[in-house]
Amino acid sequence: MTQAAIRKLRFSFRAGALATAVIALTFFLAPGTLHAQSQCLACHGDKSMGHSLYVNGKTFSASAHGVLQCTSCHTDIKGFPHPDHVAKVQCSTCHADQASDLKGSVHASHACTSCHGDGNPHAIFPKSDPRSAVYPLNIPRTCGRCHGNPALAKKYGLPNVYSMYMDSIHGFALSKEGLLVAANCQSCHGSHHILSHKNPQSPTYKTNIPDTCGKCHAKIEAEYDAGIHGKALAAGDLKAPVCTDCHTAHAILNPTDATFRMQSTPICGSCHKEKLTTYRDTFHSQLGMFGGYVETARCWDCHGAHDILPASDPHSRINKANLVETCGRCHAGANASFVQYQPHANPRNRKLSPGLYYVRLFMNLLLISVLTFFVLHTLLWVIRSRYNQIKNNGSKGGKDA
Amino acid sequence: MPDLEQMTAETKEHGKESTRYFLRFTSKQRYFHAVLFTTFLGLAATGLTMRFSDSIWARAVARAVGGFGAIIFFHKACAVVLTIAFLVHVKGVLSRGLVHRERGIFWGPTSMVANGKDLKDLFEHVRWFLGLGPRPQFDRYAYWEKFDYWAVFWGMVVIGFSGYAMWFAPFFAKFLPGWALNAVLVIHSDEGLLAILFIFSIHFVNTHLRPDSFPMDMVIFTGVESEEEFKAKRPLEYERLAREGKLEQRLAEAPGRFQINFSRVVGYAAIAIGLTLLALTLAAYFD
Hints:
The complex is a heterodimer. Chain A is mainly alpha-helical. Helices cover 47% and strands 0% of the residues of chain A. Chain B has a three-stranded antiparallel beta sheet. In chain B, 32% of the residues are buried. The chains are: A mainly alpha, B mainly alpha. At the A-B interface, helix 17 and helix 20 of A face helix 1, helix 3, helix 4, helix 5 and helix 6 of B.
């Protein structure tokens, strides 16, 4: 048989099969109505229909919407054959609340399927199903499709948060440990009603952050609320730091992590400028700058992290009555005299630290006078010796001036 | 040492017996100097790194040796060795002076204790620098050498005490007021800086780099110097020993080739490290 003959035979076979299917459909079904998924799948279950029209019947029937008929969503299809152009599915018909939430959010222009179904509207699973794009462990990847894209981040002026999150303690708990309770994107931002952090309704608005984090970190929130920063925020001081000011929003590190300990002192210092300067003069800071194996005191080692209280408060760690215990946590054998050490002493301030001021003055005068005298002495000596060498031995100089 | 090089060349021409060598420093004194400058370089390198911990090079050094835990370990280790050397030295001086009644150690031309002649020498020396008078004649220890000695002595007491006060702060707090714990860091750091700047600029030039000794006075390494050098640098001591007939007792052998080369390597390395640290200090200070 020739090639042409084979091709001809194959074509007539295919045409025959299609004709049989159409005849079978018209014969077995009441004309004009479509009921079962199987009826639609007779055509749409064929992969050769192409990506946009093909529906995997097996996946669809296992999905959240698997119990529904195709026409439950594709409501404008009344019978077969259906028109060439069919209307867009309206999820809001059933999911009215979610649709209205989405409409008021920053993602108003996005289709439901941009998150749900991993790009496949017929493969939407309930969020408790590990196959779901919004299953807790899958959420960062789903959001990261846009928010992990440097080009998109740049276009909308957003930080490229996906990589920050994945390297954070939350991301680590989620990706490495598979902790379902680990905070993922929607734990803080919500799901459908995501608002800008500048919107006072947003859970990520500054004054709402302690409550947002407190949903999981309840005890820390209580401590924070009782501390000086929490009280200031409650009193309406928007300069008071909230959780994310110290811990950052997405790149949250374990607070015992050396990197976090290194990066956080300047954060406190961005408001407490004078305290940072005086801290920089001390042993704690000079050695602490290196990081490394041994740690020196950072701000919160003495002041506390969340329950920071003024020294006048008897519950404060830096209240006189508590200093021996606070310093003693690092300095074994700390006593009443030891804790008179001033971790923020300023040797340049005569009124605040007179002893230190005069010690520094004396040391500086000693240093300057000794060096000035001897630098001059040595310079003159070198010049004179060289002069003698040249005078005695000609331009070549030589030893024994 | 050009002196010795020239000596050897002359010796070859005139015959060996024409150059005599005299002992200036005993081997014990030379070992002390070696321990002193080795630990001092270690203390300076680690101390400066801590003092200027916010400079780029300090962090690089910290990373290279394994964090500040390692830096402070080396600092303390050098400090302990130097403290032991200091105590051994003080004990030696006291036993020579008090037990063996060696009077010259506390007073007179062979003593480290300053006297009226040192003050006179200083004035005359400066007059000579300015061309206003003849060069003064020095005995065994010139005034700047005595200053070096006492600067190091005082420095070790002050820096050592303030250092141990920080190391064992809770213990020292038993008899020091609280603000003293703040003061010891200022004292330790400023006195340390003074010592570093002094040694790496003034001592290096006065003793090694000035034209008379350039590039290095080898006597602290070999222990001996030539008769010519002895006479030129310390005429009063030479004359005094000759007068007392003790010159022959100080005769020593010429330094061997290995001794000279070894001393050169060690000495140049020490000076190179010192000058590097001096440059880093100045860079960090004026940054």
